[in-house]
Amino acid sequence: MLKVFKRYTVVSVLIVLCFFSAFISLCNGLLSVAQADKLIRKENQFACASEIQATIHVAEDMAPDTLLRLMNHVGTCNVYIENMEIYFDEIDSVYRPNVVLCQNEKFSLPTDRPDLEIPEGSVIAPSSTTGGRGQLSIHGQEFSVYDTMDDDAYPFVRGLFVLNANDYFKAFPEALHGLYEITLRIASNEDDAYAAFAQIRTNLQEEVPRAAIHATETAESDNIFQILLSEENLFSADLFLFALINTLIISYYWITVRRREIAIRKAFGADNRSVIRLVSGELLQLIGLAALAAIVVQGLIWLTRGNSLDVREALLIAGGLLLSIAIAVMIAMAVPIHFILRIQPSEGVQR
């Protein structure tokens, strides 16, 4: 490698700098992918196997008691009313809670007491929001914090509260006023959500004959491919592509400068394959040096910030960088190979 730098300093430095910046960006992009993958796996761990969204269409205001009676004889699944808002006296923000109309199985949430129904006057809250408080109030009405969810370990529950519909409508009695489309979420890990939907539809026909209800399936697990097109990853890919384009231009100049050297090598018996192997090996060393420098610099930055990598994240980043190096060498050799095949041994004796 030192020989390459000594003989072709300008070209070598340009190639290393091009890929150093690209690999720095790729390291951050791969880290974001790894962290998002970890979060998705955690979130999918609590995803319901069967989940549908049911929308009730009414021509006039539905009373909370009527909505609660729609849960009569619904013996399977958990049913929540969606798009409700909640705010506490101690917390200066508005949230959209899980308002439980009907609970027949444990919650698919990271709670310490998932099997028990929430007692009236209680709420399940994210740990960072309670601030260690054992109670929260709405309009002066006290709610005990029945359980907390660790939203540092499980960020997808950040800002999520769970409480009974009875408690919710006591705190917000006018919540359904002017609401002519009421959205329910029916979720289960044990039963078919459509069976619960059928019972709710039957109850609706009895309670509010003029109302209508329809359902759509919404449950689907997130996967890693959904975050590959993030803004950060697109920027990393663009920078890597920019480095490849620059290297193609630089390699053209590199082979032009070395044209006579390559012709002399051929005149002394070197074939195209050995010359291509030589040039690609030198290019691999330069790109590998850029990757190593990027890893060291990025590692120091992560240590300074207090970041840590688990084995899965480290393997993903290492695999991504190795794949990127291989792709870079193959693409960057496109121009040199073209010219190496065309160089004749006789050019080595020409002045």
Descriptive notes:
This protein is of the alpha+beta class. It folds into 2 domains: 2-43 and 225-348, no CATH class; 48-222, no CATH class. 50% of the residues lie in helices and 15% in strands. The chain has 11 helices and 9 strands. The protein has helices at 2-7, 9-45, 64-69, 127-130, 165-171, 193-207, 231-257, 259-267, 272-305, 311-332, 334-342, and strands spanning 50-57, 78-81, 98-102, 122-126, 135-138, 141-149, 162-164, 181-188, 212-217. The strands form 2 sheets. Strands 7-3-2-8-1-9 form a 6-stranded mixed β-sheet. Strands 4-6-5 form a 3-stranded mixed β-sheet. Strand 5 (135-138) and strand 6 (141-149) form a beta hairpin. The mean pLDDT is 82.
Task: Give the SSE layout.
Layout: H1 2-7, H2 9-45, E1 50-57, H3 64-69, E2 78-81, E3 98-102, E4 122-126, H4 127-130, E5 135-138, E6 141-149, E7 162-164, H5 165-171, E8 181-188, H6 193-207, E9 212-217, H7 231-257, H8 259-267, H9 272-305, H10 311-332, H11 334-342
Parallel strand pairs: 3-7, 4-6
Antiparallel strand pairs: 1-8, 1-9, 2-3, 2-8, 5-6
Note the main attributes of this structure.
single chain; 11 helices; alpha+beta; three-stranded mixed β-sheet; six-stranded mixed β-sheet; 351 residues
